Amino acid sequence: MGRVAVVGTGQTKFEARVPEKTYYELAFDVAKEALNEAGITHRDVDSAVYGIYNDLFERQVMPDTFVHDYLGFYGKSGTRVTTGGATGAYAFRAGYAEVASGLSDTTIVIGVEKAQDVFDWAQYKSTPEVLKSIAYSSDMTWEYPLGVQAASSYALLATAHMRKYGTTEEQAALVSVKNHGNAKNNPYAQSPMDITVEDVMKSRMISYPFKMLDCSLYTEGASAVILMSEKKVREMGISDPVWVAGIGSSNDRSFPGFRSVNDFLGNYGDIADLRGHYEAARIAYRAAGIQNPLKELDLAEIHDAFSFTEIQGYEAMGLAHPGKGGKFIEDGIPQIHGDLPVSPSGGLIGAGHAVGATGVMQIVEITKQLTGEAGKRQVEIRNGKGLAHSIGGPGSSYCTVTILEA
Amino acid sequence: MGRVAVVGTGQTKFEARVPEKTYYELAFDVAKEALNEAGITHRDVDSAVYGIYNDLFERQVMPDTFVHDYLGFYGKSGTRVTTGGATGAYAFRAGYAEVASGLSDTTIVIGVEKAQDVFDWAQYKSTPEVLKSIAYSSDMTWEYPLGVQAASSYALLATAHMRKYGTTEEQAALVSVKNHGNAKNNPYAQSPMDITVEDVMKSRMISYPFKMLDCSLYTEGASAVILMSEKKVREMGISDPVWVAGIGSSNDRSFPGFRSVNDFLGNYGDIADLRGHYEAARIAYRAAGIQNPLKELDLAEIHDAFSFTEIQGYEAMGLAHPGKGGKFIEDGIPQIHGDLPVSPSGGLIGAGHAVGATGVMQIVEITKQLTGEAGKRQVEIRNGKGLAHSIGGPGSSYCTVTILEA
């Protein structure tokens, strides 16, 4: 079985609102950019995988079919993947499988999300569609009646980590400071800011221990990558592409403590340590032949839906020992000029979280970094290896880790 | 690259309403049955692909995460695919790619749909969720204001076929008579009935030329298949499994005539002939090495969302010449004892259309037929080859054709 390469990338600026474009126009922009970068046309594409999370945001079921149409992909296969906050990463996995299986030689993976078209701008309030799309993302049978939603479920994971390991709000705030700061060098980022730990601590409380500045953003945008079989890469004479070295996905239980009496009695184990994330990393590292990630990786994009989530990510990705994620950021290791830069893009907190597009954006960032095209935010490339960590779902049930190699 | 086998199948009875079970309980039932049939346990499964169409039917975003949890699949990869009426078929494609790519040795594909939990039974009327989930499935920008929805878009395809080829309502009614009749021998079917062409013609008008009995049904249920790599099949000592011989997917434009001025001026071409369906068949036949499908196939399950759709399917699958689909059923060829039985399960009209589950149910049916386990509806197996044709989307934009071989 031949390898699979990333041969083209595209991204829009991530913004709070892009009122002038529909989701299919955003998808068109990134597809065109990725095709141009790969030096191919839409005729060379065999199939598409779409990462689009939410039907309610756009009052549109099957949005992928209109993207496919608008892109002129008539006759080609098009599959939509949706897995919460990790939608883009699982779409990338499905795109990899399309090519590695031999079903396609060239596959485009497009992540896109619009979220604000259904916002009621006249009265400046959320519409039922927006509220439902968020409410319905917790388990409607058991969790929703208990008030468990996106922020509050991740907050429970964070407080468990604080209790078990003594992780502090100030340590988490350092993640926010770093990522808003990194975003200043990313022209595609939504929220570049110079802030301090104190600014984070003083920002409005959302769900303890998350303050406003601990949280990622509501974002619109798109990202795309083109995947190609090794055989086709050779035929096309593409030199030095970025290769997919390993993918690990592991879906853990959805939010623990509420799903059943068994969980309530503690069968999940300890929610301070996200088992699925550890397992996804293990699978990906084994596939990529990585033994010491901290030494072998040149950078990582870690899913910082919330600041504490990135700290838990350091540990699950084997960059810090369990419980030492807070010290890892205190020691400056994940800073842009640290030993292992994490989220030079700005991550979800700094660059934005355009749900379906986010996981693809991480792949775009790693690809640009590994090929030395990351401009002002370029990190030092020694081993030519980078990692993308994408999560989603209630209680962070989805996790995919992707390792790229130049 | 080794082949991929179907080594286990499971299905629930398709019913209008299964009030006593949640979607994750239905998924559990079919997963257990498929695992038992394969002679493996849930520990042997490397990954899962879920075909679940609609979030609004259950007031639940990310329903797959709760299925994954309920099935005890902690730690394994789980991906959700959603592509309208063809959701189950594209989930099967993604499951095939999981195994053929080497990402997994054993993958379970589960299709499940509940649709009636949000129906207002007390007042016996649809809730906003039900109405929206159907309304939002046409393009909200261009088509919805023109009244194009599920039945009316397929009706336009049918009237185009009638005008171009002279296909009659009576010919289409024969499909309904056949499929309701086949369902009598399928214990899993929702709508077994002895009816006549006259009964179909006299049934209530829905959207010309579709009467009530031309339409498939609102259905709840689940289906599952277990896919395994050739290497693993040999290791497990599984003898004579059913192999995936070819998959072709082709997504055509979404509904023509409304998407743009270009379409309105006729750039789509002729909507009587469903280009995407022809293309999907071409790809699948080439992969499976089939030259004369009418002679080489032993049976086909053709997606009869509406009676006319099956007639258009005969033609696109190369079983009848373009325009001769009406005569094909008049001549009795697709009858259960005809030269090429079509939809011995009863199809969507007779067996039911549990959206995400339907495409998987077709694979279950073909597998059972090829292995001689189809009971009273068993067709004669000569070449050991069967075809499943699954479609969906506005204007039938999604199409996947899968060929299995015993």
For the largest interface, the chains and their residue counts are:
A-B, 63 and 64 residues
Mean pLDDT of chain A: 92
The percent of residues in helical segments of chain A reads 25-40%
Question: Would you give the CATH topology of one domain in chain A?
Answer: Peroxisomal Thiolase, Chain A, domain 1
Strand order of the largest sheet of chain A: 3-2-4-7-1-8-11-10-9
Oligomeric organization of the protein chains: homodimer
The level 1 CATH classification of one domain in chain A is: Alpha Beta
What overall geometry of chain A do the principal axes of the alpha carbons give? Answer: globular
State which percent range the strand residues of chain A make up. Answer: 15-25%
CATH architecture of one domain in chain A: 3-Layer(aba) Sandwich
* The CATH superfamily title of one domain in chain A: Thiolase/Chalcone synthase
Radius of gyration of chain A: 20 Å
The chain-level structural class of chain A is alpha/beta
Stretches of chain A where pLDDT falls below 50 for ≥5 residues? 256-266
Separation, N- and C-terminal Cα atoms of chain A? 19 Å
Quantity of strands of chain A, as a count = 11
Order of helices and strands of chain A: EHEHEHEHHHHEEEHEHHHEHHHHEE
Largest sheet of chain A: 9 strands, mixed
